[in-house]
Amino acid sequence: MTAAEETLSEMDAPRSRTSIVMRWLLRRANLVLGAVLVGLIVIVAIFAPMIATAQPDAQDLMNTLSAPSAIHWFGTDNFGRDIFSRVVYGARISLLEVVISVGISCLVGVPLGLIAGTLGKRADQIIMWIMDILFAFPGIILAILLVSVLGASLFNMMLAIAIFSIPVYARLSRNVSLGLKEMEYVEAATALGASIWRVMFDHILRNSLGPIIVQSTLTAGTVVLAAASLSFLGLGAQPPTPEWGAMMSDGRNFLGVNVYLSLFPGLAVTVMVLGFNILGDGLRDLLDPRS
Amino acid sequence: MKTYIARKLLALPLIVLGVSLLVFLAIRMLPGDPARMMAGPEAPEAAVEAMRVRLGLGQPLFMQYFGFVVHAIQGDFGISIRSNLPVASEIANRFPYTFALALTSYAMAILIGVPAGMAAAVFRNRWPDQIVMLLAIAGASVANFWLALMAMNYFAVELHWLPLLGAGSWKHYILPTIALGTLPTALIARMTRSSMIEVLSQDFIRTARAKGLGSFAIYRKHALRNALIPIVTIVGLNFGSIMGGAVVTESVFNWPGIGRLLVDSVRYRDYPMIEGVTLLAVVSVVVVNFLAEMAIAAINPRIRLT
């Protein structure tokens, strides 16, 4: 059978639903891998009490700084706390950071960008000037400035990260709305008497959702890294919260004695960020093939 | 090109103005007496009064801001609460360390990122490409301070090959450079790959091949020139992320740059220093970004036409 005949016979053969799904998934390996990694973290966060082998704050002062063993899979820290359980509970805090920071920045940035892009003129100039100012700051430096004013706490850190992420959403939704407002269906809605707000939120926003979802996934990775960095510096989650960055900060004092204090929380951060980055790339290929 | 430069040049002071306004307002939003905050909790009443006059707290807010800008232009950011030294002179002492670390990190990024990205493009969809892209995405996802801790643990604590903390000899640069340079290396590799792939599919490459030019000559002659765009883009437009990364990396390695100075100042509530370091760091990022945009426009005429 020649190659052409093989292809023809393949085309003739009725494909099962499973094989169609498998082919679709195989073509989008990065999307699947990203979703698996992020899904894994979400499952760990939801079922933390069932997965953890001990309470995250339970101390065993007779068994401090121990290496990984059958009882303590990732070893114990300087207070004898089980590192595995703390890493598991840390997934909850990291996901909370993602939800709060991405949620606030999206809820503020997207409407600002829509208003700038749709209304144009003076509103556009003023909003984008403010966004350019925020964008000029390196994210961590703006967050440090804000935390130094607001005080170091988990919530203030999430707020600071949200503020430096706002311009990303404002710029994105402005650019998308600039393109969409020239579309015929938007012009038709305006001609039929729809108000500018209805056009903005009912027509333009609905059609900007794809790029916003992709951006949120990529921003989630940035949020996890920024939160870990700020907590590592002592400007975010405070002890004894099992936050991954704060755990690594504790671990730096025990390098050479027990590297596992820093090793496992850092691996967890990397897996989570990697997951969001790969998922974001995959979603972009899926939702916005032109890019 | 002139219109493009003029447009960007006009936007520059507006951004700097906004950045200084934000820094000014942030510190004045602190609960309590700003003069007490800026003079320090231990300062005598006379010093607090002097600070009140210096900050112009009796005057309207815009006059206070005007005074702040005038002082800043003169390089006067006040006296550090922690060290009792002028903020500007401490920043001047620390900045060369951060600058040197940024340079070595960029050098690492270019020396590794460009050849890796070129190799990935030449061997597109084959194993060298897959390995480079896997490493690039891992490099962009890893927390630089974690990488720093792991490298410290292995090379400094266990093997004793490299110094653990501080700055001094060339050996002190190796671990902080790896920690800070990993992200730009990953980004340059990714960008070099995609711009190379675009170049290699162009007609002039086919013509060059048809003329009998060897593969190596094609890559050297055409690809290197095109690799300039990703280098300038990453080096220039990501200067902000280098400054941000330096804050954490310097804190891990006790590196005496402005990043660690900022973190220490936050811990000691040294507000004049926080104000000075933040303002100078952001203004330097804005200026470097502007220069990079100009350089990119000069290299790639398509950009200034959009």
UniProtKB/TrEMBL annotation, chain A:
One BP term from GO: peptide transport
Parts of the chain that traverse the membrane: 31-52, 98-119, 126-147, 212-236, 257-279
GO cellular component: plasma membrane
Keywords: Cell membrane, Membrane, Peptide transport, Protein transport, Transmembrane, Transmembrane helix, Transport
Domain of life: Bacteria
Domain ABC transmembrane type-1: 91-280
Subcellular location: Cell membrane
Gene3D superfamilies cross-referenced by the UniProt entry: MetI-like
Membrane topology: Multi-pass membrane protein
Pfam families: BPD_transp_1 (PF00528), OppC_N (PF12911)
PANTHER family referenced in this protein's UniProt entry, alphabetically: D,D-DIPEPTIDE TRANSPORT SYSTEM PERMEASE PROTEIN DDPC-RELATED, OLIGOPEPTIDE TRANSPORT SYSTEM PERMEASE PROTEIN APPC
Family membership noted in the UniProt record: Belongs to the binding-protein-dependent transport system permease family.
Full protein name: Glutathione transport system permease protein
Native organism: Consotaella salsifontis
From TrEMBL, chain B:
Protein source organism: Consotaella salsifontis
Name of protein: Glutathione transport system permease protein GsiC
Bilayer-crossing regions: 9-30, 95-119, 131-152, 172-189, 227-248, 277-299
Entry keywords, A to Z: Cell membrane, Membrane, Transmembrane, Transmembrane helix, Transport
A Pfam family hit: BPD_transp_1_N
Domain ABC transmembrane type-1 positions: 95-292
Keyword Transferase: no
Record-level GO BP terms: transmembrane transport
SUPFAM superfamilies: MetI-like
Keyword Cell inner membrane recorded: no
Listed PROSITE patterns: ABC_TM1
UniProt family annotation: Belongs to the binding-protein-dependent transport system permease family.
Function in brief: Part of the ABC transporter complex GsiABCD involved in glutathione import. Probably responsible for the translocation of the substrate across the membrane.
Subcellular location: Cell membrane
